[in-house]
Design brief:
heterodimer; A: 154 residues; mainly beta; 8-stranded antiparallel β-sheet; two-stranded antiparallel sheet; globular; B: alpha+beta; 37% helix; 24% strand
Chain lengths: 154, 82
């Protein structure tokens, strides 16, 4: 009685041909900041890593995401009612927090200021800007153990 | 650019749903109240620009996927030495 999950293929400049299931498609009503018009993304886990690719369905745009819990310790913030409403969730706890990864000259950084919040159940997402703390948009993800966020004190 | 003169307490409408109200003028600063539907992102431009630029860079990787995945895989291995 198992039904074959319907899927479609996505041609990616970066990743080649990708197989996408409907359940992997997320709607970003607000888009991603600076890319407001792109609202449909596929979220695809990269095997054997904690990373996922968030790939636009209708544009040559793709992000790498990592769950915040895999990348940094002591990372918490208040999610306002407008955002939970936009995601269609009743409680902030139902939201998964992902960080946008940026690879620059083979070094890996994450954006702590503007994480991507996802509701798996509603397949909705938003890039949320944290206003209650000063956080960097480009924070090095070290190749060592998980980092604690501290002021670099530079 | 459209230029309008408004007094404290007065409001400007952008379309049907976005309201911009002048709340107070404090020295060189103007305090503004904004009301907009939840899908409208409201940010100070400096912050908007820094996030936008980071997104544009992150969203258009110059490296091919295989290399990216290899790089991230290596990172994971070194993480596992805990």
């Amino acid at each position: 009685m198992t039904h074959e999950q319907p899927y479609f293929t996505l041609q990616s400049d970066v990743y080649g041909t990708l197989q996408v299931k409907e359940e992997q498609v997320f709607e970003f009503q607000k888009g991603i900041i600076g890319l407001q018009d792109i609202q449909r993304y596929a979220l695809l886990q990269i095997e054997n890593t904690p990373f996922s690719v968030l790939h636009a369905l209708d544009a040559p745009i793709s992000f790498i995401l990592i769950p915040a819990s895999e990348a940094v310790d002591r990372y918490g913030f208040h999610i306002d009612d407008e955002t939970t409403e936009l995601l269609g969730v009743a409680h902030p706890e139902e939201v998964v927090t992902m960080l946008v990864v940026n690879i620059i000259e083979d070094r890996v950084y994450v954006n702590l200021k503007a994480p991507v919040l996802l509701s798996q159940m509603n397949r909705s997402g938003v890039q949320f800007v944290i206003h209650d703390q000063e956080l960097p948009v480009r924070y090095p993800l070290s190749s060592g153990s998980k980092e604690e966020i501290t002021d670099a004190g530079a | 650019m459209l230029v309008l003169k408004r007094k404290v307490g007065e409001t400007i409408m952008l379309g049907d749903q976005i309201e911009v109200q002048i709340l107070a003028i404090e020295g060189e600063s103007v305090k503004i109240g904004l009301t907009a539907p939840s899908h409208i992102q409201i940010l100070r431009k400096e912050l908007y620009e820094s996030i936008r630029q980071e997104n544009i860079l992150a969203g258009q990787p110059a490296t091919q996927g295989e290399q990216l995945i290899q790089l991230l895989g290596n990172l994971k291995k070194s993480n596992k030495q805990d």
